[in-house]
Amino acid sequence: MPASCTPSRRTVLAMLAAGLAPLKQAVAQGPSQQTIRLNVPFSAGTGPDLLARILSEELRQRWNQPVIVENKPGASGNIGTQAAARANPDGLTLLVTVNTFVMNASLFQSIPYDPEKSFEPIAEIATGVLALVVHPSLNVTTFPELIALARSKPGEINYASPGRGTPQHLAMELLKLTAQIEMQHIPYPGSAGAIKDLAGGHVSAMFIPVHTALPLAEAGQIRILAVGSQNRAQRAPQVPTLAELGVTGFDVDLWYGVLAPAGTPKATIDRYNAVFNEILAEPGVRDILDKQGLLAEGGPPERLAGLIARDLPRWAKVVKDAKITSE
Hints:
By secondary structure, this protein is of the alpha/beta class. It has helices at residues 9-29, 47-63, 78-85, 100-107, 143-152, 167-179, 191-199, 210-218, 266-281, 283-291, 301-321, and strands spanning 36-40, 67-71, 93-98, 119-128, 130-134, 158-161, 184-187, 205-209, 223-227, 254-261, 294-296. Helix 4 packs parallel to helix 11.
């Protein structure tokens, strides 16, 4: 071909662009370019929010698809959970939540969703260990000493929680029922104020995440007596579990999961499950979670379904036996 007939680089690029334009338009209109929404029924900075933001970034990079986190707090998570339950089951709206999701079913007279029927479980994402802590002014250094003091002064020791029906609240109520002690509940509108007053000695005891407890304990502001998980915490292997101390059947881990609206196709559930397991296997992701006191989990959808089925009657009994109300 004569040089004069050879297309210029600019011409070639223009031709390529013209030829690819219909393909680009088709891709833009395809499912892969639609925005995925991770619905978090709690405010920014909470555990579910942190996990949703990690997942959103990892999903965006892997699937080259827009992924956004939508915080819809209110009514102990019921508002955002209802919104997720009512979303189209097309795989574009997921719920990222914590086990308050099942606790609310017993705490409120009615909730706008059914934990088992309104959603399709995708994966358990992470767990967080709760530590039983006290202020040094209580003059106890071990769990047995706390129990002995509580029994000698029924109802005189108070404990804080981030609010009625929160995992921290129900964990202490379960401990009270199991150990047969009486303590006074002081609910707060969130964790920050409760932990501040605990460190300042205005309240005497609390269940708090172990990674939050460790620096306060090192500073001498609180004492860690035990952890509420089945196994010792990786961040605090020296701290015994309540089970080791004789409290049988006690497991109050925070668990976090991702679910889709009921009716979402199984193929979509399986695709999300596979990618979330890949993400949770990444050393960098596991390191980020560890620094936040969270243990990466994963596993099949049936694992999360089993947690929901187990915890619904479990916490319903605690709420009933402890006569807990949402107000």
